């Protein structure tokens, strides 16, 4: 399957004459669609600080984000994995030497319909749903009348699918009954409308934007609490609150990286440095993810689940 890409930006014509420096010029970047809200905020603030800089993002699946980097269509990609040895060797053959910077820790959230109050689940149960060993809600909750479980992801090439295969199912084949939408917004919309659905989504998409404490989630859906034990209860189950991500109590977490192939200290390096500085890390902090280079204050967020 061939994929074509087009890049657009607000007002790049005014910036094309700027030289390529850490704070000026125009670059194209690719980013895992899971992180669109955060990366777009980073870009907006960076461009407001440096008016001669223009960053043109393409929000795609993680597979496509890395493919664009390998093809040298972009010099910066935001991903949840580092490059493989083969990918690095391909870049080296092009005289490109990638640099990787960890910028955040994200959570993989499990969301259900607002009418569904069965929100405690174990890691083992999720693995069984993903591999087709559990297909009905009553297998999890004997009194449930929701019928068949419909588990939905953002898209077939997403980083959340890869996480499910690699980190949850340890390479086992996923059930052919899993569903893929187009993006994270579509997952939220689907779960909000379908009572028997479970959505798998990046935690930064489900925060309550009006809550500056980052201690609540979107009112459109319910968020499941996950236990690493064989049986889930209120005491051993955790939702993807920022504090639980930072403390390692929530079981489904992943690192977020910027990978740059900037051959000189140009705009890709300047943007990477900005995201890693205090101002860039505060944007990540406000998103609900855990900043990689900034100490955060841990707040007791235990609720009644």
UniProtKB/TrEMBL annotation:
Region of interest (Disordered), ranges: 1-24
Signal peptide: none
PBP domain location: 18-277
One Pfam family here: PBP_like_2
Compositional bias annotation for Polar residues: 1-11
InterPro entries in the cross-refs: PBP_domain, Phosphate_ABC_transporter
Keywords: Signal
PANTHER family: PERIPLASMIC PHOSPHATE BINDING COMPONENT OF PHOSPHATE ABC TRANSPORTER, PHOSPHATE-BINDING PROTEIN PSTS
Name of the protein this chain belongs to: Substrate-binding domain-containing protein
The species this protein was found in: Coprobacter tertius
């Amino acid at each position: 399957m061939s994929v074509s890409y087009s890049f657009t930006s607000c007002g790049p014509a005014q910036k094309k004459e700027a030289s390529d420096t850490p704070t000026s010029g125009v670059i194209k970047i690719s980013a895992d669609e899971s992180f669109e809200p955060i990366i777009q905020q980073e870009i907006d603030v960076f461009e407001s600080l440096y008016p001669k800089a223009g960053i043109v993002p393409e929000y795609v699946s993680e597979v496509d984000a890395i493919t664009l980097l390998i093809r040298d269509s972009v010099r910066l990609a935001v991903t949840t994995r580092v490059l493989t040895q083969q990918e690095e060797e391909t870049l080296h053959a092009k005289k490109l030497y990638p640099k990787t910077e960890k910028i955040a820790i994200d959570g993989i959230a499990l969301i259900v319909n607002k009418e569904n109050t069965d929100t405690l689940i174990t890691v083992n149960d999720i693995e069984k749903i993903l591999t087709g060993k559990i297909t009905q809600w009553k297998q999890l909750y004997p009194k449930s009348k929701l019928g068949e479980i419909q588990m939905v992801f953002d898209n077939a090439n997403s980083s959340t699918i890869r996480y499910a295969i690699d980190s949850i199912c340890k390479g086992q084949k996923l059930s052919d009954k899993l569903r893929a939408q187009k993006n994270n917004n579509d997952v939220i919309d689907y779960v909000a409308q379908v009572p028997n659905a479970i959505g798998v989504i990046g935690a930064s998409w489900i925060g309550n934007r009006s809550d500056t404490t980052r201690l609540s989630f979107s009112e459109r859906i319910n968020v499941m609490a996950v236990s690493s034990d064989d049986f889930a209860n209120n005491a051993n189950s955790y939702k993807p609150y920022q504090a639980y991500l930072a403390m390692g109590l929530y079981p489904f977490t992943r690192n977020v990286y910027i990978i740059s192939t900037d051959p000189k200290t140009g705009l890709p390096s300047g943007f990477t440095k900005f995201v890693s500085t205090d101002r860039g890390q505060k944007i990540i902090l406000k998103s609900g993810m855990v900043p990689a280079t900034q100490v955060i204050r841990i707040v007791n967020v235990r609720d009644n689940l």
